[in-house]
Amino acid sequence: AIEMDSSYVRAWHGRGIILKHNGNHNEAIICFDKILEIDGRNIPALGDRAEILLLSGKYEEALSCYDRALDITSDHNVISTIWFRKGYIFERYGKYEEAILCYNKAVEIDEKNMFAWNSKVTLLYNQKKYNEAVIGCDRAIEIYPDCVFAYLTRGLAMYETGIYEEALSSFDRVLEMEPSNNSAWNYRLQAMVMVATELDKKGRYSESIEYYDKVLAINPENVHAWLNRGQSLFLQGKYDDAIECCYKAIDIDPFYSTGRNNLGYYLYRAGKYDEASVNIDKAIELDPGNSDAWDSKGELLLSVGKYDEALLCYDKVLAMNAESAGSWCGKGHALKGQEQYEKALECYERALKIDPYCVEAFKAKSNLIKGKKI
After folding, report:
1. How buried is 348 (Cβ within 10 angstroms: 0-12 exposed, 13-18 middle, 19+ buried)?
2. What's the CA dihedral at 63, 65, 70, 76 to 10 degrees?
3. What is the DSSP letter of 39?
4. What is the DSSP letter of 5?
5. pLDDT by residue (tens digit) across 167-196?
6. Is 3 helix (H, G, I), strand (E, B) or coil?
7. CA–CA separation, 60 vs 54, rounded Å?
8. Whole-prediction pTM value?
9. pLDDT digits (tens, 9 = 90+) for 249-294
10. 69, 63 contact by CB (below 8 A)
């Protein structure tokens, strides 16, 4: 058909598409160029040509095709689509600000362009611009109240900003629309754990335990839920129950350093020093960079008067995190135990500089001064 009638645009286009799909990009470009020789205002040919150029890494040339298309079309929907495609090119090549501007232009021209909304809010989320992502999701939801991706992205952004109940609400909405959405189920469980953790901080332990139990009813293998449940019980002074939660978590993941450390610390607080020491050492063996485990070991050693060894532990912690007020307190206690009172006072003052409301440091400093040890 092409040989018989070189102006037969449809035949050139069909040939170009086949060549494009077969990876014969240069030959495909020739076909689309032929179409544009015949009809310089052929938007589909410009679009296909741009896609091939993009696949070939020639994004500036691809953008030129879309700019040419913008110059020759007045179709509302087509213009919006072209701005969306330009945004996609910019995003793919790491020019994120330009990409956002293009996506904004696309939805400004056609607010129902959900491809543009999706790309915009996803990019904002990936760029950690969570508040802007939420605003975009809310607008998309106004236009399409049953928009799954908008609710899902909104939930993720809310989660990242620590607004866990709002995140949970968004994930619940996704599951109302798509009950088998595995991503939403997983994110929902994470949000439930964090809602419970926030309740713990407010001392609302019975409510937090209800959340943890709901999570574990859905997924009994959720290590974080077991550990956080144990933390909640520990804060209530229910050491045996907290220890049992840690054992559950360790049964699921024997190589999780945090689980071993939590178990060791709860055993220590329950007065079971030998078992505590074994588990804290195991936590450090599993992850030598676990500063919490080194801190736990330091506290345990302090409690049995091994000040030299405790001091080494706190130095390990502070080498990893010099802004840990609690560890500066621990180091101060170890130095005080060695009768290095001036250095101990410096540690307590350092702790108070980091956290002016650190009760432990304030009391330790006051007691040291009152005891006339300096």
Report:
1. buried
2. -90
3. -
4. -
5. 999 999 999 999 999 999 999 999 999 999
6. coil
7. 8
8. 0.77
9. 999 999 999 999 999 999 999 999 999 999 999 999 999 999 999 9
10. no
